[in-house]
Amino acid sequence: MHFSKAQFAESKTARWKSLPNKKQLAILFFARFVDVVQNTSLQTYIYYQLQSFQPESPDTTISTKIGWVLGIFAAAQALTALIWARLADSKLFGRKRSLWIGLFGNCVSCVGIGVSKSFGQIACWRILAGTMNATGTIVTVMLAELVQEEELQPHAFLLLTLAQNSAALIGPESSHWEQIHERSKNGGEPPAPRQFDAKQSRICILYAISLFDAKLPECRVTYGGWFLCLVWASREQSLDRGIPDVLTSAKQVNVFHTMKTGEENASTRSGVWTKRMVLVLAAQASLDFHIAAFNHLWPVFLSTPSPATDNAQAQATKSRKVAGLGLSSSSVGFVIAMIGGIGLIGQITLYSRITIRFGSVKCYQWFSILAPIAYALAPILALFSAPTVSAANHQPATLWIGITVVLLFQVTGRVFSIPAAIVLLNSCVPHPSKLSTIHAIGMVVSSAFRTLGPISSGYIYSASSSVGNAILPWWTLSLVSLSGCVALFVIPAWCGEKAKIESAADSFEL
Protein backbone atom coordinates (compact mmCIF):
# COMPACT_ATOMS: atom_id res chain seq x y z
CA MET A 1 0.00 0.00 0.00
CA HIS A 2 1.40 3.34 -0.99
CA PHE A 3 -0.78 5.49 1.26
CA SER A 4 -2.34 4.93 4.61
CA LYS A 5 -6.02 5.82 4.91
CA ALA A 6 -5.18 8.90 6.97
CA GLN A 7 -2.60 10.05 4.42
CA PHE A 8 -4.99 9.48 1.53
CA ALA A 9 -7.74 11.47 3.25
CA GLU A 10 -5.27 14.25 4.05
CA SER A 11 -4.12 14.43 0.43
CA LYS A 12 -7.73 14.69 -0.73
CA THR A 13 -8.45 17.65 1.55
CA ALA A 14 -5.32 19.57 0.51
CA ARG A 15 -6.68 21.79 -2.24
CA TRP A 16 -5.37 24.80 -4.10
CA LYS A 17 -7.76 27.07 -2.20
CA SER A 18 -6.10 25.98 1.07
CA LEU A 19 -2.75 27.51 0.12
CA PRO A 20 -1.73 30.51 2.27
CA ASN A 21 -0.20 33.76 0.96
CA LYS A 22 -1.94 33.44 -2.39
CA LYS A 23 -0.87 36.89 -3.64
CA GLN A 24 2.79 36.20 -2.92
CA LEU A 25 2.52 32.75 -4.52
CA ALA A 26 1.00 34.32 -7.63
CA ILE A 27 3.93 36.73 -7.89
CA LEU A 28 6.44 33.88 -7.54
CA PHE A 29 4.52 31.93 -10.18
CA PHE A 30 4.79 34.89 -12.53
CA ALA A 31 8.49 35.29 -11.75
CA ARG A 32 9.17 31.71 -12.73
CA PHE A 33 6.96 32.13 -15.80
CA VAL A 34 8.87 35.13 -17.18
CA ASP A 35 12.17 33.42 -16.37
CA VAL A 36 11.23 30.48 -18.59
CA VAL A 37 9.28 32.28 -21.33
CA GLN A 38 12.37 33.96 -22.78
CA ASN A 39 14.05 30.56 -23.10
CA THR A 40 11.07 28.94 -24.83
CA SER A 41 10.86 31.85 -27.26
CA LEU A 42 14.58 31.55 -27.93
CA GLN A 43 14.22 27.87 -28.84
CA THR A 44 11.58 28.81 -31.41
CA TYR A 45 13.63 31.34 -33.38
CA ILE A 46 17.30 30.80 -32.60
CA TYR A 47 17.73 28.58 -35.68
CA TYR A 48 16.46 31.32 -37.99
CA GLN A 49 18.43 34.07 -36.28
CA LEU A 50 21.74 32.22 -36.57
CA GLN A 51 20.88 31.38 -40.16
CA SER A 52 20.27 35.07 -40.90
CA PHE A 53 23.82 35.92 -39.78
CA GLN A 54 25.42 33.59 -42.33
CA PRO A 55 22.83 32.33 -44.84
CA GLU A 56 25.44 30.16 -46.54
CA SER A 57 26.23 28.21 -43.33
CA PRO A 58 25.24 24.53 -43.46
CA ASP A 59 22.61 23.19 -41.08
CA THR A 60 25.26 21.15 -39.27
CA THR A 61 27.13 24.31 -38.24
CA ILE A 62 23.93 25.99 -37.08
CA SER A 63 22.99 22.93 -35.00
CA THR A 64 26.35 22.99 -33.22
CA LYS A 65 26.03 26.70 -32.47
CA ILE A 66 22.51 26.23 -31.07
CA GLY A 67 23.86 23.57 -28.72
CA TRP A 68 26.43 26.04 -27.40
CA VAL A 69 23.84 28.83 -27.04
CA LEU A 70 21.63 26.60 -24.90
CA GLY A 71 24.44 24.86 -23.01
CA ILE A 72 26.47 27.88 -21.91
CA PHE A 73 23.44 29.33 -20.13
CA ALA A 74 23.18 26.25 -17.89
CA ALA A 75 26.96 26.21 -17.39
CA ALA A 76 26.99 29.84 -16.27
CA GLN A 77 24.11 29.12 -13.90
CA ALA A 78 25.95 26.16 -12.39
CA LEU A 79 29.07 28.23 -11.72
CA THR A 80 27.23 31.07 -9.97
CA ALA A 81 24.18 29.40 -8.37
CA LEU A 82 25.89 28.86 -5.02
CA ILE A 83 27.10 32.46 -4.91
CA TRP A 84 23.61 33.81 -5.60
CA ALA A 85 22.08 31.52 -3.00
CA ARG A 86 24.61 32.82 -0.47
CA LEU A 87 23.76 36.42 -1.39
CA ALA A 88 20.04 35.64 -1.13
CA ASP A 89 20.62 34.48 2.46
CA SER A 90 22.62 37.59 3.36
CA LYS A 91 21.17 40.73 4.93
CA LEU A 92 22.83 42.89 2.28
CA PHE A 93 20.95 41.36 -0.66
CA GLY A 94 18.12 39.15 0.57
CA ARG A 95 15.61 37.23 -1.51
CA LYS A 96 13.85 40.11 -3.25
CA ARG A 97 16.97 41.92 -4.35
CA SER A 98 18.55 38.73 -5.68
CA LEU A 99 15.40 37.99 -7.67
CA TRP A 100 15.31 41.57 -8.93
CA ILE A 101 18.92 41.41 -10.14
CA GLY A 102 18.40 38.03 -11.81
CA LEU A 103 15.32 39.15 -13.72
CA PHE A 104 16.90 42.46 -14.64
CA GLY A 105 19.87 40.56 -16.04
CA ASN A 106 17.46 38.49 -18.12
CA CYS A 107 15.82 41.70 -19.33
CA VAL A 108 19.15 43.16 -20.45
CA SER A 109 20.17 39.92 -22.15
CA CYS A 110 16.88 39.78 -24.08
CA VAL A 111 17.57 43.25 -25.45
CA GLY A 112 21.15 42.29 -26.26
CA ILE A 113 20.17 39.12 -28.09
CA GLY A 114 17.52 41.05 -30.01
CA VAL A 115 20.13 43.41 -31.48
CA SER A 116 22.97 40.88 -31.82
CA LYS A 117 24.68 40.60 -35.19
CA SER A 118 26.77 37.47 -34.65
CA PHE A 119 26.90 34.16 -32.82
CA GLY A 120 29.61 35.47 -30.49
CA GLN A 121 27.41 38.35 -29.34
CA ILE A 122 24.51 35.99 -28.60
CA ALA A 123 26.84 33.70 -26.64
CA CYS A 124 28.07 36.62 -24.51
CA TRP A 125 24.52 37.72 -23.70
CA ARG A 126 23.55 34.15 -22.78
CA ILE A 127 26.54 33.89 -20.45
CA LEU A 128 25.48 37.17 -18.82
CA ALA A 129 21.92 35.88 -18.39
CA GLY A 130 23.09 32.62 -16.81
CA THR A 131 25.63 34.34 -14.56
CA MET A 132 23.04 36.70 -13.10
CA ASN A 133 20.21 34.17 -12.91
CA ALA A 134 19.33 31.98 -9.93
CA THR A 135 15.60 32.62 -10.16
CA GLY A 136 14.57 28.96 -10.13
CA THR A 137 16.43 28.14 -6.92
CA ILE A 138 15.37 31.30 -5.09
CA VAL A 139 11.71 30.94 -6.08
CA THR A 140 11.74 27.35 -4.82
CA VAL A 141 13.20 28.45 -1.49
CA MET A 142 10.64 31.25 -1.11
CA LEU A 143 7.80 28.83 -1.84
CA ALA A 144 9.05 26.61 0.99
CA GLU A 145 9.12 29.64 3.30
CA LEU A 146 5.63 30.83 2.39
CA VAL A 147 4.01 27.36 2.55
CA GLN A 148 5.36 25.40 5.50
CA GLU A 149 2.45 22.96 5.96
CA GLU A 150 3.71 19.64 4.64
CA GLU A 151 0.35 18.55 3.23
CA LEU A 152 0.17 21.74 1.14
CA GLN A 153 3.76 21.84 -0.12
CA PRO A 154 3.18 19.43 -3.06
CA HIS A 155 0.58 21.85 -4.45
CA ALA A 156 2.90 24.80 -3.88
CA PHE A 157 5.86 23.20 -5.65
CA LEU A 158 3.62 22.12 -8.51
CA LEU A 159 3.28 25.84 -9.28
CA LEU A 160 6.86 25.75 -10.61
CA THR A 161 6.15 23.12 -13.24
CA LEU A 162 2.83 24.78 -14.08
CA ALA A 163 4.74 28.00 -14.71
CA GLN A 164 7.24 26.20 -16.92
CA ASN A 165 4.55 24.54 -19.02
CA SER A 166 2.59 27.79 -19.26
CA ALA A 167 5.70 29.51 -20.57
CA ALA A 168 6.33 26.67 -23.03
CA LEU A 169 2.77 27.13 -24.30
CA ILE A 170 2.56 30.92 -24.43
CA GLY A 171 6.14 31.92 -25.31
CA PRO A 172 6.40 30.46 -28.83
CA GLU A 173 2.86 31.45 -29.81
CA SER A 174 3.15 35.02 -28.54
CA SER A 175 6.43 35.41 -30.42
CA HIS A 176 4.74 34.16 -33.58
CA TRP A 177 1.84 36.61 -33.31
CA GLU A 178 4.24 39.45 -32.52
CA GLN A 179 6.16 38.56 -35.67
CA ILE A 180 2.96 38.74 -37.72
CA HIS A 181 2.20 42.16 -36.22
CA GLU A 182 5.69 43.44 -37.06
CA ARG A 183 5.38 42.15 -40.62
CA SER A 184 2.10 44.03 -41.09
CA LYS A 185 3.72 47.27 -39.88
CA ASN A 186 6.77 46.81 -42.11
CA GLY A 187 4.80 46.14 -45.27
CA GLY A 188 5.46 42.41 -45.24
CA GLU A 189 9.17 42.66 -44.45
CA PRO A 190 10.18 40.27 -41.64
CA PRO A 191 11.57 41.86 -38.46
CA ALA A 192 14.93 40.99 -36.99
CA PRO A 193 14.48 37.39 -35.81
CA ARG A 194 14.67 38.22 -32.12
CA GLN A 195 13.51 41.83 -31.86
CA PHE A 196 9.87 40.91 -31.29
CA ASP A 197 10.86 38.24 -28.77
CA ALA A 198 13.12 40.71 -26.93
CA LYS A 199 10.27 43.21 -26.70
CA GLN A 200 7.72 40.83 -25.21
CA SER A 201 10.25 39.29 -22.79
CA ARG A 202 11.42 42.73 -21.66
CA ILE A 203 7.85 43.86 -20.91
CA CYS A 204 7.05 40.71 -18.90
CA ILE A 205 10.27 40.83 -16.88
CA LEU A 206 9.97 44.53 -16.03
CA TYR A 207 6.40 43.95 -14.87
CA ALA A 208 7.56 41.10 -12.63
CA ILE A 209 10.25 43.33 -11.12
CA SER A 210 7.65 46.00 -10.31
CA LEU A 211 5.50 43.37 -8.60
CA PHE A 212 8.42 42.26 -6.43
CA ASP A 213 9.03 45.78 -5.23
CA ALA A 214 5.38 46.50 -4.45
CA LYS A 215 3.88 43.23 -3.23
CA LEU A 216 6.49 40.68 -2.21
CA PRO A 217 7.70 40.84 1.42
CA GLU A 218 11.26 39.92 2.25
CA CYS A 219 11.28 36.41 3.72
CA ARG A 220 12.79 36.03 7.16
CA VAL A 221 13.79 32.38 7.53
CA THR A 222 16.88 31.28 5.63
CA TYR A 223 16.46 27.99 3.81
CA GLY A 224 19.27 28.50 1.36
CA GLY A 225 22.03 28.08 3.94
CA TRP A 226 21.84 24.29 3.86
CA PHE A 227 22.25 24.44 0.09
CA LEU A 228 25.64 26.13 0.46
CA CYS A 229 27.11 24.09 3.28
CA LEU A 230 29.06 21.82 0.95
CA VAL A 231 31.08 24.82 -0.22
CA TRP A 232 31.24 27.01 2.86
CA ALA A 233 31.64 24.44 5.66
CA SER A 234 35.07 22.94 6.24
CA ARG A 235 33.99 20.43 8.89
CA GLU A 236 31.00 18.19 9.36
CA GLN A 237 30.12 20.04 12.56
CA SER A 238 29.69 23.16 10.45
CA LEU A 239 27.11 21.32 8.41
CA ASP A 240 24.94 20.94 11.47
CA ARG A 241 25.15 24.67 12.18
CA GLY A 242 24.48 25.51 8.54
CA ILE A 243 21.09 23.79 8.51
CA PRO A 244 18.29 25.91 9.96
CA ASP A 245 16.48 24.26 12.87
CA VAL A 246 13.12 24.74 11.20
CA LEU A 247 14.32 22.85 8.12
CA THR A 248 15.70 19.88 10.03
CA SER A 249 12.59 19.37 12.12
CA ALA A 250 10.74 16.13 11.47
CA LYS A 251 7.62 17.95 10.32
CA GLN A 252 9.35 20.15 7.77
CA VAL A 253 11.72 17.60 6.24
CA ASN A 254 9.97 14.24 6.65
CA VAL A 255 12.31 12.58 4.16
CA PHE A 256 14.45 10.44 6.43
CA HIS A 257 14.17 6.80 7.23
CA THR A 258 12.96 5.86 10.69
CA MET A 259 16.11 4.98 12.62
CA LYS A 260 17.02 3.96 16.11
CA THR A 261 19.55 6.02 18.02
CA GLY A 262 22.43 3.67 17.29
CA GLU A 263 21.53 3.54 13.59
CA GLU A 264 21.32 7.34 13.48
CA ASN A 265 24.78 7.79 14.94
CA ALA A 266 26.22 5.23 12.55
CA SER A 267 24.54 6.95 9.62
CA THR A 268 25.97 10.29 10.69
CA ARG A 269 29.46 8.87 10.63
CA SER A 270 28.99 7.10 7.29
CA GLY A 271 29.56 8.70 3.93
CA VAL A 272 26.95 9.69 1.39
CA TRP A 273 28.37 7.65 -1.49
CA THR A 274 26.23 4.55 -1.12
CA LYS A 275 25.11 2.26 -3.95
CA ARG A 276 21.68 3.82 -3.72
CA MET A 277 23.12 7.34 -4.04
CA VAL A 278 25.14 6.40 -7.13
CA LEU A 279 22.12 4.84 -8.84
CA VAL A 280 19.86 7.79 -8.02
CA LEU A 281 22.44 10.22 -9.39
CA ALA A 282 22.78 8.08 -12.51
CA ALA A 283 19.03 8.27 -13.06
CA GLN A 284 19.08 12.02 -12.37
CA ALA A 285 21.96 12.56 -14.80
CA SER A 286 20.17 10.60 -17.51
CA LEU A 287 16.95 12.57 -16.97
CA ASP A 288 18.62 15.99 -17.09
CA PHE A 289 20.78 15.02 -20.05
CA HIS A 290 18.03 13.73 -22.30
CA ILE A 291 15.55 16.52 -21.47
CA ALA A 292 18.15 19.22 -22.13
CA ALA A 293 19.28 17.47 -25.31
CA PHE A 294 15.67 17.13 -26.50
CA ASN A 295 15.05 20.84 -25.90
CA HIS A 296 17.94 21.49 -28.29
CA LEU A 297 17.40 18.75 -30.88
CA TRP A 298 13.64 19.13 -31.29
CA PRO A 299 13.53 22.72 -32.65
CA VAL A 300 16.55 22.03 -34.87
CA PHE A 301 14.96 18.84 -36.19
CA LEU A 302 11.71 20.69 -36.90
CA SER A 303 13.48 23.55 -38.70
CA THR A 304 16.13 21.71 -40.73
CA PRO A 305 14.99 21.24 -44.34
CA SER A 306 14.47 17.74 -45.64
CA PRO A 307 17.31 16.49 -47.89
CA ALA A 308 14.76 15.59 -50.52
CA THR A 309 14.19 18.00 -53.40
CA ASP A 310 11.92 18.08 -56.42
CA ASN A 311 13.90 15.61 -58.51
CA ALA A 312 12.98 11.96 -58.77
CA GLN A 313 16.30 10.68 -57.45
CA ALA A 314 15.83 12.56 -54.17
CA GLN A 315 12.30 11.18 -53.90
CA ALA A 316 13.64 7.66 -54.32
CA THR A 317 16.36 8.03 -51.68
CA LYS A 318 14.25 9.87 -49.11
CA SER A 319 13.47 6.68 -47.20
CA ARG A 320 17.18 6.22 -46.53
CA LYS A 321 17.89 9.80 -45.38
CA VAL A 322 16.73 11.61 -42.26
CA ALA A 323 17.73 15.23 -41.69
CA GLY A 324 14.74 17.26 -40.56
CA LEU A 325 11.10 18.10 -41.14
CA GLY A 326 11.59 21.50 -42.78
CA LEU A 327 8.66 23.17 -41.02
CA SER A 328 8.00 26.88 -41.34
CA SER A 329 8.75 29.20 -38.41
CA SER A 330 5.05 29.45 -37.52
CA SER A 331 4.71 25.67 -37.48
CA VAL A 332 7.82 25.31 -35.31
CA GLY A 333 6.35 27.75 -32.80
CA PHE A 334 3.08 25.82 -32.74
CA VAL A 335 4.80 22.46 -32.19
CA ILE A 336 6.94 23.82 -29.35
CA ALA A 337 3.82 25.34 -27.80
CA MET A 338 2.26 21.86 -27.90
CA ILE A 339 4.86 20.78 -25.32
CA GLY A 340 3.50 23.28 -22.81
CA GLY A 341 -0.11 22.46 -23.66
CA ILE A 342 0.33 18.73 -23.19
CA GLY A 343 2.27 19.30 -19.97
CA LEU A 344 -0.42 21.57 -18.53
CA ILE A 345 -3.22 19.14 -19.36
CA GLY A 346 -1.26 16.23 -17.89
CA GLN A 347 -0.47 18.05 -14.65
CA ILE A 348 -3.99 19.35 -14.13
CA THR A 349 -5.95 16.21 -15.05
CA LEU A 350 -3.68 13.20 -14.43
CA TYR A 351 -0.69 13.95 -12.21
CA SER A 352 -2.37 14.26 -8.81
CA ARG A 353 -4.75 11.34 -9.30
CA ILE A 354 -2.14 8.89 -10.52
CA THR A 355 0.60 9.83 -8.03
CA ILE A 356 -1.83 9.66 -5.11
CA ARG A 357 -2.82 6.18 -6.20
CA PHE A 358 0.59 4.70 -7.04
CA GLY A 359 3.21 7.04 -5.54
CA SER A 360 5.58 9.44 -7.25
CA VAL A 361 8.59 7.18 -7.61
CA LYS A 362 6.60 4.19 -8.81
CA CYS A 363 5.25 6.49 -11.52
CA TYR A 364 8.82 7.66 -12.14
CA GLN A 365 9.89 4.09 -12.81
CA TRP A 366 7.14 3.25 -15.27
CA PHE A 367 6.59 6.57 -17.04
CA SER A 368 10.33 7.01 -17.64
CA ILE A 369 10.04 4.21 -20.21
CA LEU A 370 8.09 6.57 -22.47
CA ALA A 371 11.14 8.78 -23.17
CA PRO A 372 13.29 6.18 -24.99
CA ILE A 373 10.26 5.18 -27.06
CA ALA A 374 9.65 8.81 -28.06
CA TYR A 375 13.29 9.33 -29.08
CA ALA A 376 13.34 6.11 -31.10
CA LEU A 377 10.21 7.20 -33.00
CA ALA A 378 11.28 10.82 -33.60
CA PRO A 379 13.52 10.30 -36.68
CA ILE A 380 10.79 8.28 -38.39
CA LEU A 381 8.77 11.51 -38.66
CA ALA A 382 11.09 12.68 -41.44
CA LEU A 383 9.67 9.97 -43.69
CA PHE A 384 6.26 11.67 -43.58
CA SER A 385 7.38 15.27 -44.13
CA ALA A 386 6.63 17.24 -47.29
CA PRO A 387 9.19 16.36 -50.00
CA THR A 388 9.64 19.91 -51.28
CA VAL A 389 10.43 23.24 -49.69
CA SER A 390 7.37 24.80 -51.34
CA ALA A 391 5.13 22.34 -49.47
CA ALA A 392 6.56 23.15 -46.03
CA ASN A 393 3.36 24.93 -45.00
CA HIS A 394 1.19 22.02 -46.20
CA GLN A 395 2.48 19.04 -44.29
CA PRO A 396 0.47 15.79 -44.44
CA ALA A 397 -1.85 14.80 -41.60
CA THR A 398 0.24 11.71 -40.87
CA LEU A 399 3.18 13.93 -39.92
CA TRP A 400 1.11 15.92 -37.43
CA ILE A 401 -0.28 12.73 -35.93
CA GLY A 402 3.27 11.42 -35.54
CA ILE A 403 4.46 14.67 -33.94
CA THR A 404 1.57 14.50 -31.47
CA VAL A 405 2.39 10.89 -30.54
CA VAL A 406 6.08 11.66 -29.97
CA LEU A 407 5.26 14.68 -27.80
CA LEU A 408 2.64 12.75 -25.82
CA PHE A 409 5.25 10.14 -24.93
CA GLN A 410 8.06 12.58 -24.15
CA VAL A 411 6.07 15.19 -22.21
CA THR A 412 4.03 12.65 -20.21
CA GLY A 413 7.27 10.99 -19.16
CA ARG A 414 8.82 14.25 -17.97
CA VAL A 415 5.63 15.36 -16.16
CA PHE A 416 5.88 12.35 -13.84
CA SER A 417 9.68 12.09 -13.73
CA ILE A 418 10.84 15.58 -12.74
CA PRO A 419 8.96 15.90 -9.39
CA ALA A 420 9.73 12.29 -8.45
CA ALA A 421 13.45 12.78 -9.08
CA ILE A 422 13.54 15.27 -6.18
CA VAL A 423 11.72 12.80 -3.92
CA LEU A 424 14.11 10.02 -4.86
CA LEU A 425 17.14 12.19 -4.13
CA ASN A 426 15.65 13.06 -0.73
CA SER A 427 15.41 9.35 0.04
CA CYS A 428 19.22 9.14 -0.07
CA VAL A 429 19.57 11.44 2.96
CA PRO A 430 20.53 9.20 5.91
CA HIS A 431 20.53 11.99 8.50
CA PRO A 432 19.76 15.75 8.63
CA SER A 433 23.47 16.52 8.84
CA LYS A 434 23.86 15.07 5.33
CA LEU A 435 21.00 17.03 3.79
CA SER A 436 23.11 19.84 2.36
CA THR A 437 25.72 17.46 0.98
CA ILE A 438 23.17 15.31 -0.83
CA HIS A 439 21.33 18.21 -2.44
CA ALA A 440 24.48 20.10 -3.37
CA ILE A 441 25.86 17.01 -5.10
CA GLY A 442 22.53 16.57 -6.88
CA MET A 443 22.60 20.20 -8.03
CA VAL A 444 26.13 19.88 -9.41
CA VAL A 445 25.30 16.67 -11.30
CA SER A 446 22.07 18.14 -12.66
CA SER A 447 23.73 21.34 -13.89
CA ALA A 448 26.63 19.47 -15.45
CA PHE A 449 24.43 17.19 -17.51
CA ARG A 450 22.04 19.99 -18.48
CA THR A 451 25.14 21.65 -19.93
CA LEU A 452 26.48 18.53 -21.66
CA GLY A 453 23.12 17.57 -23.18
CA PRO A 454 22.70 20.38 -25.74
CA ILE A 455 26.41 20.64 -26.59
CA SER A 456 27.01 16.93 -27.19
CA SER A 457 23.71 16.42 -29.03
CA GLY A 458 24.57 19.37 -31.27
CA TYR A 459 27.90 17.81 -32.24
CA ILE A 460 26.34 14.39 -32.88
CA TYR A 461 23.54 15.91 -34.93
CA SER A 462 26.01 17.91 -37.01
CA ALA A 463 28.23 14.89 -37.65
CA SER A 464 25.36 12.62 -38.64
CA SER A 465 23.62 15.27 -40.76
CA SER A 466 26.82 15.85 -42.72
CA VAL A 467 26.47 12.33 -44.13
CA GLY A 468 22.78 12.85 -44.86
CA ASN A 469 21.26 10.97 -41.93
CA ALA A 470 20.29 12.32 -38.50
CA ILE A 471 19.05 9.10 -36.91
CA LEU A 472 22.15 8.67 -34.71
CA PRO A 473 21.50 11.54 -32.21
CA TRP A 474 17.94 10.41 -31.58
CA TRP A 475 18.83 6.78 -31.03
CA THR A 476 21.77 7.81 -28.86
CA LEU A 477 19.34 9.86 -26.79
CA SER A 478 17.06 6.84 -26.57
CA LEU A 479 19.89 4.70 -25.18
CA VAL A 480 20.86 7.38 -22.62
CA SER A 481 17.29 7.67 -21.35
CA LEU A 482 17.01 3.87 -21.28
CA SER A 483 20.07 3.70 -19.02
CA GLY A 484 18.24 5.93 -16.55
CA CYS A 485 15.27 3.54 -16.61
CA VAL A 486 17.57 0.63 -15.85
CA ALA A 487 19.07 2.50 -12.89
CA LEU A 488 15.58 3.16 -11.48
CA PHE A 489 14.59 -0.50 -11.64
CA VAL A 490 17.94 -1.72 -10.26
CA ILE A 491 17.64 0.40 -7.09
CA PRO A 492 15.25 -2.01 -5.26
CA ALA A 493 17.40 -5.06 -6.10
CA TRP A 494 20.70 -3.49 -5.01
CA CYS A 495 19.48 -1.47 -2.07
CA GLY A 496 16.96 -3.76 -0.44
CA GLU A 497 13.31 -4.41 -1.17
CA LYS A 498 12.19 -2.67 2.03
CA ALA A 499 13.90 0.64 1.32
CA LYS A 500 11.29 3.27 2.17
CA ILE A 501 11.07 6.73 0.77
CA GLU A 502 8.95 9.31 2.53
CA SER A 503 8.15 12.85 1.55
CA ALA A 504 5.54 15.46 2.20
CA ALA A 505 3.91 14.47 -1.09
CA ASP A 506 3.70 10.71 -0.69
CA SER A 507 4.90 7.63 1.13
CA PHE A 508 5.61 4.47 -0.80
CA GLU A 509 7.85 1.41 -1.05
CA LEU A 510 10.21 0.54 -3.83
TrEMBL record:
The keyword Membrane applies. It holds the Pfam family MFS_1. The chain crosses the membrane at residues 66-87, 99-119, 277-298, 332-351, 363-386, 398-425, 437-462, 474-495. It is a multi-pass membrane protein. Gene3D superfamilies: MFS general substrate transporter like domains. The keyword Transport applies. It is found in: Membrane. Keywords: Membrane, Transmembrane, Transmembrane helix, Transport. This is Major facilitator superfamily (MFS) profile domain-containing protein. It comes from Coleophoma cylindrospora.
